[in-house]
Amino acid sequence: MAKAALEAVNGNNVYGEQGAAWSVIYVDIDAHNRNRTIFETILPRESNSKNTDASLLPTICWPAFAIHEEPVKRQAVNKVIRKLKGNYGIKRFFRDGYMTELEDKNRKYYRPAEIKNFDGIESEWPIFYLFIMIDCIFHGDKEGAEKYQKLLKPLLVESPDGLLIPQYYYVPADKIDLEKSKPGSQKRLASPVGSTDGIFMWGQAVYLISQLLSDGLLNVNELDPVRRYLPALERPKFSARYSKFQGTPPDLIIQIVLIAESTRLQQLLATYGIQTQTPHQIEPIQIWSPKELTKAYEYLGVNKKLGLTGRPSRPFGVLSTSKIYRACSKTILCYPLLFELSDFYLAQDISLVMDDCKNDLAFLSKRWKLSGRPTWCMVIRENSIRGHNFGEFLDLLSQFKKGSVDGIRVSLGRLQSFISSACIEHLDFLHTLIDPGIFTKFEEKAVGSNFKSLTDIPSLIDIVEDGHVNKKDLLPRSTYDLCQMLRSVSGLTIQSQILEILYEREGPLYRTEGQTVEERLERLVQKAGAHKHWSVVRLCSALLGKLVDSLAPSVTSVLVRGKQITVGVFGHEEEVLDKPVGPNEIKTIIYGKCLPYDIRQAVLQQELILCLGKIIATSSELFDGILKIRIGWFVRAIEVEMEQEQGSAFDIHAISPHHVKEMMLTVLTRNTYEADIRTPFQKRQLDGALNRVPKDFYDRVWEILERTPGGIKVAGYLLPQQPTLSDMTMYELNFSLLVEQMLSKIVDPSYRQIMVEAFMVVSIILERNPELMFQQAVNMDKIIQEAYDEFQRDLNKSEGREKQDDMRCFFNTAPNVKHGTTGYIGKTVMRTLLDGDLRVTMDDMCCVS
Fold it and tell me: Using N-to-C axis directions, what is the helix angle for 70-84 and 127-138, rounded to 10°?
């Protein structure tokens, strides 16, 4: 169902206001937001971003009205018109062979390279003029409606049945060559219509609707009774009992409720001026975990007679947990998934948790579209205030108290006082289906009534690491010796190394000191996390095969923006994630690719995927020019950045998850905005590791391929001219991915970036010299090698240096300067071109008349 329709029907009872509770329509606001984001993302926004399709017109205009962001809608409509409009209607899409004279009507498939035959002779459909015309009427554009009415008039066919609209117009067989040589020059013929051949009923129905609207015999509100064409704020409202969509108000205030898990914690925070409530103090209102809300919604739509099992057990996002629910005579507030206890270690990094809090608030301020204010519940546990981040944690709570968090307006107060202004949702479907006692509320932590002071919350005692011990030194020891050593050492690193060996040698269920290896690893994860010893945390978590929550949605967030993800350790084989996958499948892939080389990366790469999903959702422009996100190469990019900052080798596994996220933002932004601070080699290393390419890079590779019959060769991989050019078009995503597949054969980031620069040089030379082309397969590695050899010869003449085995000095040379890399590559390309035969046509030659 279209996004606008979901907004329109939320809370509507299909049997009227007196209908039963089971007939109310509920909309999952988080799923709705995901759908909205996906659709807005895939819309064509740039003229050269990807191919487009005429089916967008009835999707974003009447009858679906699937988007109300007017600038995005206009861009999409204008692109369809600019690229697909003809004299007889609008093409469905490029190289559409349907009902052309060259199409084999007896076959239901096309052979390889066959769609190239339909280029320029695609059938044109008048019906799409009607969709544009109707959209103009809906938006009061009388001039636009009259324009398309005039364009349509000569396309109608007179018949005994009246004026009929043909399904399509096609190029006759004897005019195909002329049309291809001069597009738009030939007269097209209408598809057969009438009593004998049948009427194009879909087109005729839309035509009649357009004429009724045009003549004033039909009102737009009669055609669209639920006002889907209007923004949510302007639509008529249904029952006030259910949450309603509206536009995001400019003065949105997010209501914040602080829930302390114990009275002891509440009193401690009060000494710093932070007022909280405990679960007992908000009764009869209950605090639920988001898992309990998921459990409740599983009963939505259950019907045993029809075999309906209800809503799938999918977690809810922050939009859904910011409502206040009434169910089973109870009032309920859910805390976000962010505060759910997890066996993954990210919750132990308070800095990351606080960062995620700000991200949640920023997301709410941008995406909240329901009537009433969002109510955001923060659960504070005693573990949150232990360690070195307590001051930073208090700073965030102080921002809540002041009423502003990074420019977002918030209001901190008691939950009871927020009810009247909150967004309320009634879960009426629960009343008759289940026993409400199956749900578990968040309980207050019992600490006893006789604690002596607020400092009873235990603090951490620093651990002194044992002397440096290498895992290789421990491997020769027997299992008995390792168990004895485990009893006597206190350092976290050596404990993790011993347990790793025992795990690999004896298995997770091997017992020592009354505990299994698996149990000891779990304890060590908690202890190392409390002491911020992240390398140990990651090693133990990977040995236990831990999987981070919400990893699958993060992968999907990246994929819907037209990117791909690869997982695998840098320098080793990778696996591409090009479609949404389930958590267990992701776990199998990540552990399978990382385990043989560096087990810690199995969890580190999960962190990065989670970060990527959050960053790309809020700052997708940081990924411009990056089509394939290679997680192992991202790890390498962060290591390169840290090594440059510290001047020495660096272990990424030793830094906190929050620091990893900061470094990811650093490598994404610095090369874009602060490129001058880097050497050419450093910049190439990072751009290569990020797989970043210039804006029109893939289009230029296409143009090179057009002038290279033998294809393009990179690192032993051949990209053939045919059937590539016949099966694909310049702007489609599949071609860009094919180019990325070719470049992925390169194993050195800086060399990859030089290769990208070499492609740009070749493209510019061919563009400026239309008479030249490559007569054989162009070997890009050979071009770079020859450019480097000449660079070395000149360097030897000017500075007396001997030839080096690697290209480091070449990579560290700026491109567009005197004796820069661009000049050397350009000379080599010209030599390669001139070594072959020149293609010269009469139009290229000078003539004297």
Answer: 150
